[in-house]
Amino acid sequence: MRLRGRKGIREDIERQKELVVLNAKDYRGKWAELFGNNNPIHAELGMGKGRFISEMSKKYPDVNFIGVDMYDELIRKASEKAKIAHEIKSEEETESAPGIPNLKLMLFNIEHIEEAFAEGELERVYLNFSDPWPKKKHARRRLTHPGFVTKYQQILNANGEIHLKTDSQSLFEFSLNSFADMGLRMRNISLNLHADGFHPDHVMTEYETKFATQGMNIHRCEVVIGQDALASHLDQLSKPKAE
C-alpha cells in the first residue's frame, strides 16, 4: 500500500513529540516509564487512520494505548483523529503539539515488532482489518501467520490476549486454523458480529463502520495467550451458566 500525502508530513509528525514515537526501539522495555504509570498497555498493530485507538484511549483512561503503523501519512491522520476524540485544539491554536496521557502513535514496521516491545510488555494486541494478503505465496505476510503470532506470544504478558476483527472470510478462516495449529484457545468467535445491530459500547474502526453499514459480515475472535488469562477463561467455563 502506497500513500501519497501532503508535503511536510514528516516535519508535522516530528513536531508532535508528546504523541508520536519515531524511535520505538529506544523504548523497548521502557514503555511504562514513558507513560509514567504501570497501567496495562494495549497495542493496535496496523491502526490505519486511528479512529479505533483514539476512541479506545478516551473510553478507557486507565489503559495505555499504542497505535502502530509504518506510514507517515497514517500517523499524521491518526494524530488528527486523536485530537478530535480528546477535544484538543489544533497546533495552530496552541503553543506546541499537546500529548494525550494514555496514547502514543508509533511509526514502525510490524514485521519487527519484537524489537519495539520487550517480553511480556503488552497485555493486548488488536488486529483490526489487517491486509488479507489473499495470494497463497504471501501467506507469511498475514498478521495472523504463526511467524507473527509467535512474536505476539513473546511480547504479551500473563494476561495477554489477541483480539482480531476482519471483513475477509478467507483471512478469518486462515487465522482460526493458524491459532488452532498453535494450540491456542479461542473464545467469542463471531461470523457476523453485528447481526443483531450495533452495540452502543462497541468501538468501531473506519473500515468496520463502512463495511457493516453495507451489510457485510464482520468476523471477530479473541485468542487467549497468557497463563493467567487462560486460567481465568477456564474458570469461567467451569461455572454453571445462569438460567
Automatic annotation (TrEMBL):
One of its GO terms (molecular function) is tRNA (guanine(46)-N7)-methyltransferase activity. PANTHER family: 3-DEOXY-D-MANNO-OCTULOSONIC-ACID TRANSFERASE/TRNA GUANINE-N 7 - -METHYLTRANSFERASE, PENTACOTRIPEPTIDE-REPEAT REGION OF PRORP DOMAIN-CONTAINING PROTEIN. It comes from the Bacteria. The lineage of its organism: Bacteria, Bacillati, Bacillota, Bacilli, Bacillales. This is tRNA (guanine-N(7)-)-methyltransferase. Belongs to the class I-like SAM-binding methyltransferase superfamily. TrmB family. Catalyzes the formation of N(7)-methylguanine at position 46 (m7G46) in tRNA. SUPFAM superfamilies: S-adenosyl-L-methionine-dependent methyltransferases. PROSITE patterns: SAM_MT_TRMB. Keywords: Methyltransferase, S-adenosyl-L-methionine, Transferase, tRNA processing. Signal peptide: none annotated. Gene3D superfamilies: Vaccinia Virus protein VP39 (3.40.50.150). S-adenosyl-L-methionine binds at E44, D69, N109, D131. Substrate binds at K135, D167, T205, E206, Y207, E208. Pathway: tRNA modification; N(7)-methylguanine-tRNA biosynthesis. Pfam families: Methyltransf_4. It catalyses: guanosine(46) in tRNA + S-adenosyl-L-methionine = N(7)-methylguanosine(46) in tRNA + S-adenosyl-L-homocysteine. It comes from Paenibacillus planticolens. InterPro entries: SAM-dependent_MTases_sf, tRNA_(Gua-N-7)_MeTrfase_Trmb, tRNA_methyltr_TrmB_bact. Its EC number is 2.1.1.33. The gene is trmB.
